Amino acid sequence: MALPDVDQVSALIRAVAKTEILPWFRNLDASAIREKTGPLDLVTLADEAAERALTPALADLLPGSRVVGEEAASEDERVFDHLDGDAPVWIIDPVDGTMNFAQGRPLFAVIVALVHRGETIAGWIHDPMDGRMATAVKGHGAWLDGRRARVAESVPLSAMVGALSTRFCGEAMAAQLEERASGLGERANLSSAAQEYLRLLEGRAHYALYHRLMPWDHAAGVLMHAEAGGHAALSDGSPYRPTLRTGSLLAAPDAESWRALRDHLFG
């Protein structure tokens, strides 16, 4: 399958962020924000506008492709069925970190992934606030603002900085993780998977742990992390795939660090 031009996709994402997202930042009233499944699961007019703009534009870049957008899937779960087909699929998170965005915190980003037959083959993460753009194509490395991205060097567990989420994993596991995380270094949960993957790509964090695996949150980031030299897998050691929606996903600088973290956190 011929890939669309990576820079052309980047330019499209930048343009949509500029016109459909940034004008709403710190300019949302109550009518522009609503709950989807609860008070911690929000959607804003910016999310919806950005997804509406990206969906047809990305599909036009790759004739025959399908689109799985977060907001479309929240309205109709049958959208997920596209991931099981043979056609290439664009996965869109129009505003990752919507809670931050709605609260006026500059910790959000646009995530786009391209998946074919259950495998992520390209990804983009764009921070509209500072202009950072991370890209990756499977087998060709990860890039951040035109420079090759590399994950952090491995360090002892007590010095590892990262994001460790205890949401969506149940009370017993959450209590265990909180207790065992005390043996690690600084925690920096940013309430945005995109921002946390950017920290991994910049070498500013060593690990990240998640328990809800929506494809728009992780398909691009896991590919980028791997292409930057990192190792990620489910807690049982099985590989991540963008068709997954449950499980515990752990990312670390390398396989040895991953095993040490997994054993420390999960026993």
Task: Give the gist of this structure.
This protein is 33% helix and 25% strand. With 267 residues, the protein is α+β, with helices and mostly antiparallel strands. The mean pLDDT is 96.
List the helices and strands and how they pair.
Blueprint: H1 6-21, E1 33-38, E2 41-44, H2 45-61, E3 66-69, H3 70-75, E4 89-96, H4 98-102, E5 109-116, E6 119-126, E7 133-137, E8 142-144, E9 147-148, E10 162-164, H5 171-181, H6 193-201, E11 207-212, H7 215-227, E12 231-234, E13 246-252, H8 255-266
Parallel strand pairs: 3-4, 10-11
Antiparallel strand pairs: 1-2, 4-5, 5-6, 6-7, 7-8, 8-9, 11-13, 12-13
Binding site for Mg(2+) 2: 93
GO molecular function: inositol monophosphate 1-phosphatase activity; metal ion binding
InterPro entries: Inositol_monophosphatase-like (IPR000760)
List keywords for this structure.
267 residues, 13 strands, Inositol monophosphatase, alpha+beta, globular, metal-binding, seven-stranded mixed beta sheet, D-Maltodextrin-Binding Protein, domain 2, 8 helices, 2 domains, metal ion binding, four-stranded mixed beta sheet
CATH uppermost class of the largest domain: Alpha Beta
Largest sheet composition: 7 strands, mixed
Order of helices and strands: HEEHEHEHEEEEEEHHEHEEH
Task: Summarize the amount of helix as a percent range.
Answer: 25-40%
- The CATH architecture of the largest domain would be 2-Layer Sandwich
Rg: 18 Å
Low-confidence stretches: none
Order of strands, widest sheet: 3-4-5-6-7-8-9
Q: What is the CATH topology classification name of the largest domain? A: Fructose-1,6-Bisphosphatase, Chain A, domain 1
Strand content: 25-35%
Distance, first to last CA: 42 Å
Tally of alpha and pi helices? 8
3D shape? globular
What would the average pLDDT be, to the nearest integer? Answer: 96
